[in-house]
């Protein structure tokens, strides 16, 4: 939870720096202007990092890990169900 608190503080600083250009959507991880991350942009930044660190995980693997860990976290079920595109997530 400490990491999320620190991230929230950092995001508030980013939001203030962007000012009126920030597109508030109540996301945890955003683009530089508050919009959802595009998968290709995330892959573009993640792949070099994971290769440098010798990690095998792809973005898709991380998504599955996150969905598996959410039920044991302090995340409310309604918000964890919306974080996945799986058929069991309750999304239309």
From TrEMBL:
Keyword Lipid biosynthesis: no
SUPFAM superfamilies per record: DNA breaking-rejoining enzymes
Annotated spans, Disordered: 63-92
GO biological process, one term: DNA recombination
Keywords recorded for this protein, A-Z: DNA recombination
GO molecular function, one term: DNA binding
InterPro entries documented for this protein: DNA_brk_join_enz, Integrase-like_cat_sf
Ranges of Polar residues composition bias in the record: 75-92
Name of the featured protein: Tyr recombinase domain-containing protein
Organism: Streptomyces diastatochromogenes
